[in-house]
Design goal:
This protein is mainly alpha-helical. The chain has a domain of about 120 residues. It has three helices and no strands. The radius of gyration is 65 Å and the shape is rod-shaped.
């Protein structure tokens, strides 16, 4: 802030003195010297006073004015350069966002197709798993049915054997006499005796 103030104060003083010199030079003959009756000489005298005042001001403030305007030029050039850079950055960002927005529909379509592909794959996997499970259940049911049939056959065979045994025992018991029973008992005892 102080740096700018140091630049502005000499400029304001220069403008104030320039305006004051013009005002003094244009005032009517209050001891300004020269011939008041001839307006040409009055104009020459006033111009000469103004030029002397300007030369003095230039001598005293010239370097400061040059520095001020030089610094100001650099500052303005820097500000313009920064503004151009900011504008270029903004245009670049705008182009990027515009490109992204242009590709949004395409991206949405790609995401949608990807999800649909994944869903179709998942659907097929579930169907395949269901078929495999159904095949396992059918195979297990077949095996269980076969086992039940085998068990039923064995149970039936055992019942038939038991019934045949009971019938044979009944027939043998009814058809055997006491002599036959005695003879069978003796044969059995002989056979057991020979083996031991």
């Amino acid at each position: 802030m102080m740096k700018k103030l140091n630049k502005i104060v000499p400029l304001l003083m220069f403008l104030l003195l320039a305006v004051a010199a013009v005002c003094l030079a244009s005032s009517g003959g209050e001891g300004g010297g020269g011939d008041e009756s001839n307006p040409v000489w009055t104009m020459i005298w006033r111009t000469f006073n103004f030029l002397i005042l300007m030369a003095l001001l230039w001598k005293l403030l010239g370097d400061k004015i040059k520095v001020f305007f030089g610094d100001r030029r650099v500052e303005i050039a820097s500000m313009i350069e920064e503004a151009d850079k900011a504008k270029a950055d903004a245009e670049k960002e705008y182009a990027e966002y515009k490109q992204k927005l242009a590709n949004v529909d395409k991206d949405i379509q790609e995401i949608k197709e990807s999800i649909m592909g994944e869903l179709e794959g998942e659907k097929q996997r579930i169907i395949d798993e269901g078929k495999a499970a159904a095949e396992r259940i059918v195979a297990q049911a077949k095996w269980s049915a076969e086992q039940e049939v085998l068990k039923a056959k064995n149970d039936l065979r055992n019942q038939v054997i038991d019934m045949a045994g009971d019938m044979a025992a009944g027939l043998v018991t009814n058809s055997m006499t006491a002599d036959d029973q005695k003879r069978l008992l003796e044969e059995y005892l002989d056979k057991v005796g020979k083996e031991h």
